[in-house]
């Protein structure tokens, strides 16, 4: 074991396996950079066995994106696999939970394939690798807006005009030569994907080799009956969402799950119906 003296709290930083500290470029004069590089070193070499190969791949991709698309101007982010907002598969924040700079989080339900509605074959399946790489690219673009443009695009959730412009610039280099819009405006962009779902929603379904349930990810117009598939009794798969209630067009209660039928029997058809009944009696 070798030691590197740290200026943060004057506590030593231990590097396992006799690793040369100069290889990590750990300089006490820059504790923030030292922390970022130490975080990456730990993720690559000492994280739990189910995380280590995945994080190693993600950090390698991050450095590749930085040099290829941003001229190596970006800081090394903190990359993790964990919980994200329910409607997001990945997120990027200005700071980590303990105040360090730039935190990128990929959803564990995608990375480890626990969300069977979306992931058919978990990592390291090639299609899932590609999907995670696309998610990381989107968050790296968002990081560039934070760091190089000095904007969080708060009104757009971080995926506004600046993000859309960068996505449009990078798109041709990854096989997506299309204009990316921050939002749909009237008839402009109607039915098209927007910046918040770039680049995965702009890909052809075959790009992910069938390892990602693409129908669960991309929006489309109202499905026809031929597009609806019954997976198990009472659960219907739509091109955009999963319904636990009834298929579209069902008029009778026979399609309702038991808990809904019991609720209606106990509480009446609706609040308005009960009010009308009271008025008739009165």
Structure commentary:
- The protein contains eight helices and eight strands; from the N terminus they run ββαααβββαααβββαα.
- The chain has 282 residues and is α+β, with helices and mostly antiparallel strands.
- The strands form three sheets. A three-stranded mixed sheet has the order 3-5-4. A three-stranded antiparallel sheet has the order 6-7-8, with no helix packed on it.
- Helix 2 (31-45) crosses helix 3.
- The termini are far apart.
The span between the termini is 87 Å
**Helix-and-strand structural type:** alpha+beta
**Largest beta sheet: what is the strand line-up?**
3-5-4
Q: In percent, how much strand structure appears in the residues?
A: 5-15%
Tally of alpha and pi helices: 8
Biggest beta sheet summary: 3 strands, mixed
Record keyword descriptors for this entry.
disordered N terminus; 8 strands; 282 residues; alpha+beta; three-stranded mixed β-sheet
Would you summarize the structure shown here?
By secondary structure, the chain is an alpha+beta fold.
């Amino acid at each position: 074991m070798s030691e590197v003296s740290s200026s943060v709290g004057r506590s030593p930083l231990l590097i396992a396996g006799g690793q040369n500290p100069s290889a990590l470029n750990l300089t006490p004069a820059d504790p923030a950079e030292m922390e970022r590089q130490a975080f990456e070193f730990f993720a690559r070499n000492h994280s739990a066995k189910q995380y280590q190969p995945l994080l190693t791949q993600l950090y390698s991709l991050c450095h590749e994106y930085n040099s290829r698309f941003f001229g190596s101007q970006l800081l090394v982010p903190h990359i993790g696999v964990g919980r994200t907002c329910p409607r997001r598969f990945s997120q990027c924040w200005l700071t980590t939970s303990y105040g360090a700079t730039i935190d990128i989080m990929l959803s564990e339900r995608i990375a480890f394939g626990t969300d069977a509605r979306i992931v058919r074959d978990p990592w390291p399946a090639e299609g899932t690798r590609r999907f995670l790489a696309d998610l990381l690219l989107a968050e790296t673009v968002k990081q560039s807006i934070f760091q190089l443009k000095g904007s969080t695009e708060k009104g757009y959730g971080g995926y506004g005009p600046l993000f859309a412009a960068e996505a449009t610039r990078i798109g041709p280099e990854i096989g997506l030569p299309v204009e990316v819009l921050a939002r749909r405006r009237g008839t402009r962009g109607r039915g098209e994907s927007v910046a918040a779902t770039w680049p995965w929603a702009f890909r052809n379904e075959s790009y992910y080799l069938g390892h990602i349930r693409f129908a669960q990810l991309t929006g489309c117009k109202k499905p026809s009956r031929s597009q609806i598939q019954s997976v198990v009794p009472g659960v219907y798969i739509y091109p955009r969402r999963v319904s636990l209630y009834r298929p579209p067009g069902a008029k009778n209660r026979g399609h309702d799950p038991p808990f809904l039928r019991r609720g209606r029997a106990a509480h009446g058809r609706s609040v308005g119906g009960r009010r009308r009944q009271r008025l008739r009696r009165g």
